Amino acid sequence: MSDNTSAKLEIIDQSGTDLQVFTTVYDGQDNIIAAQAEYAFKTDTNAAADLLVNGEEKYWQTMINSWTKGSWDNGRLLFCPADPGCVDRDNVYSQFFGWQLNDDNSGMRVISPFPLVDFPPEFDPKSNTPPLTWQLNGQNSMKLFYAPQDRAWTVLKLEEGVLGRRLYVREEAFLNGLLQIGGRIGMYEEIDFEYWNDTAPQNTVSAQAIRAKTGSRKVLKPSKTQYTEF
What we know:
Distance between the termini: 7 Å
Shape: globular
Strand content: over 45%
Largest sheet: 8 strands, antiparallel, barrel
């Protein structure tokens, strides 16, 4: 680089086209000045935004904060992270959040009420779903409108995930025309509104049945292969 620093990226794990990489940054004397484990993925230049219309009674559930160990229990995404039975109801927060996009350019914001008043298996997923509209802005971009805010998505990749179709986007959010959230990567999976009730511990749907419906996920062993250096 212009300041004589350099960086080395190594692939340490891979699942499909998702990569876990370890980045090491050196100064001009080859001393390590920074190191970080992070992830990367290969974008799909043919990804089309018009494919994001949801199936009946489905929505895009945010997943970017849901890959911690405490968010899962035997293949089941938890309504209450680190609390499979939602026992501590006075201090609980839910990761129920996302967007429903209909084929007539209408939709809903999917928001977890706070404080929560009902829990799976008796949770009402549509008790707090303000409306939105959306429009395409080209093959791989779209805008979501929910006054006084709007959100811009650039579709980076669409593939099968753990629970349903998985969507990667670059997203920005605006409030009254001013940038509120800028330039971050969002990840979502398409799931049923009733997912939370159907997979509640009180019901008989097993984690194996959930995995059988979505298919297995092949995770490669760490390769420790240098990816690129610059």
